[in-house]
Amino acid sequence: MKLTEKLALAAMHRIDPEAAHGLSVKALTMGLAPAPGPVTSARLKTTLAGIDLPNPVGLAAGYDKNAEALAPLAKSGFGFIEVGAATPRPQPGNPKPRLFRLTEDQAAINRFGFNNEGMEAIGARLAQRPRDAVIGLNLGANKDSEDRAADFAKVLAHCGAHLDFATVNVSSPNTEKLRDLQGKAALSALLAGVIETREGLSRRVPVFLKIAPDLDRAGIEDIAAVALETGIDAVIATNTTLSRDGLRSAHKGESGGLSGAPLFDKSTRVLAQLSELLDGKVPLVGVGGISTAEQAYAKICAGASAVQFYTAMVYGGLSLAGDIARGLDVLLARDGFENVAQAVGTKRKDWL
């Protein structure tokens, strides 16, 4: 990390977390952030659900909620970018304050509640996206919707022409009863509607499913069964957690989803279990607690074909994207892997 980025982060940590978040997106759009361009190599290039990636390190949804910084993010070192979540209609989300730094734990708690400008505004920005990047959209449901399952399909129908992938997000803990849609029957019906909508698009957009880390073994088995039955293209494991185990920070009692370092072990165990159950039939994206190349590599060895992070940027800056990708290249070479795919799942048993 350069001195200018360190100073910027220090300044950001002196102000309200959500205001700092907004300023960081603004800085990106003004060209005031690291832009190393694509980070890639023969070893880092990989494929996820048929999508060619320059490297397997992605930006998780939630940072660029309204697709405002697509061009600068495409130059920031990530192999792929996920924006959103987008809902059919704009919504303000939950009352503020709703984002909390847990500095002692290198973590964050948020209860945003899918605040976004809606699919019309987000779709218009996606239509102007850089064409040389891999960009996906996290699909959400309006809080007051009478048919939340249908909302996901609505957003895909509106924005699908401009996407490389779309993620069905039923795992946010900040919209009441949203996680109920992770049940086998409800999830199967929801995904069937999304897949049917996808088939009506001018081109096939891979559909991913993002799940919670708080599922028990039976719930994980249900997710695996649904993934195989519905024909979705990948599973993202995992979203934020409701657990507060081992936290030290003053904000540990705030309600919402916990992300960052404390989530690493829990999310990786869920990832490994899914990897064992799916046995390579559906690829996985590992998310939760990644802040170093070693942690990204651990997710891959536990069964992930690619990884994502977001909260670590609060503490390590945007330059982490390129740093993690380059470090991952070194680790793959150290262990004799010619490419990312060769390493996938090689240490899965360590997490079971």
3D structure, described in words:
- With 352 residues, the chain is an alpha/beta fold.
- It has a single domain, classed as TIM Barrel.
- Helix content is 36%, strand content 16%.
- The chain is built from 12 helices and 13 strands.
- The chain has helices spanning 3-12, 17-29, 70-74, 118-126, 148-159, 184-199, 217-230, 264-278, 293-302, 312-316, 320-334, 340-343; strands at residues 46-48, 51-53, 57-59, 80-86, 99-102, 107-110, 135-139, 165-169, 207-211, 234-237, 257-260, 284-287, 306-309.
- The strands form 3 sheets. The chain has an 8-stranded parallel beta barrel with strand order 3-4-7-8-9-10-12-13, surrounded by 6 helices. Strands 5-6-11 form a 3-stranded antiparallel β-sheet, with no helix packed on it. It has a two-stranded antiparallel ribbon with strand order 1-2.
- The longest helix has 16 residues, at 184-199.
- The protein is globular and about 50 Å long.
- It starts with a helix and ends in a 9-residue tail after the last helix.
Write the layout of secondary structure elements.
Elements: H1 3-12, H2 17-29, E1 46-48, E2 51-53, E3 57-59, H3 70-74, E4 80-86, E5 99-102, E6 107-110, H4 118-126, E7 135-139, H5 148-159, E8 165-169, H6 184-199, E9 207-211, H7 217-230, E10 234-237, E11 257-260, H8 264-278, E12 284-287, H9 293-302, E13 306-309, H10 312-316, H11 320-334, H12 340-343
Parallel strand pairs: 3-4, 3-13, 4-7, 7-8, 8-9, 9-10, 10-12, 12-13
Antiparallel strand pairs: 1-2, 5-6, 6-11
Helix pairs in contact: 5-6, 6-7, 7-8, 8-9, 9-11
